Amino acid sequence: MNRSELLGIFCDEARTHLAAAVEELDGLEPDAAQDLGELFRRFHSVKGMAASLGMDDLRRSLHDAEEAVEQARRAHRGLTAREIETLISHCRHALTRLDRMEGFEGETTTDGILAQARRALPPVRVDADRLDRLLDLVMSLSVSQQRLEHLLGLPEDPAMLAIRDTLAEAVRGLRREILEIRLLPVRGLLPLLERALRDWAREQGVKVALRVEGESTRIDRTLLERLVDPLGQLLRNAVAHGIEAPAERLRLGKPERGQIELRIDAGKDRVRFVVRDDGQGIDVAAVAG
Hints:
mainly alpha, 65% helix, flat
């Protein structure tokens, strides 16, 4: 994937995050303590993407926004009216910068104009069902190619042997590429999990923040979809059985807001998800009863 394609994908995803951040900020009540995890994650994601593409001015602006939100999170407080206004300004500045990157200003050469035109094209998206069909086809092709090798045996003709090896490598390469396309970062699940976590915490009358490590880990899309329910259940158990009520936490000398940690460890052929919380632990007898 060349830089123009990466830039198109970046602009598309960054606009989604920044527009959502503006909407979230507009809905905040100044100085009211609330979960800022999703807002922090949006700034962090766009900042990381900007850094990877060498957009230092955009990275610095979003770093400042990220730091302002993180300071409020560490202090377990809400954002002030001035901070909200400043963060919205950061978002609008970044959105304007994205519009200029996909415009045609400053590109007067033919090559420059064509390059900008390519970047202005929407990124190519492949829907999930079509990707599944492609994977089924390439797996069928791989099986047929292996059966053909078995039936024909080892060719004596060097030219036929070269064709056989080239075909085998092409099928393997195609399968690798399709499997790679199916990989998605775990961070795609986080907004959904964080929203659910807020709802569960509200139901239980507790306060909780989610910290994630390894969110850039990429796994197969189908597996990622199947992880929603078990991960949600683990987080819900932490809220329902682990995290104490704010008053009880203060009595125990703990911060009023409970902390839940989700850690994703990727190995060579496995991915491990670990959920921990700083609450009282699960009363096994109560759950069993």
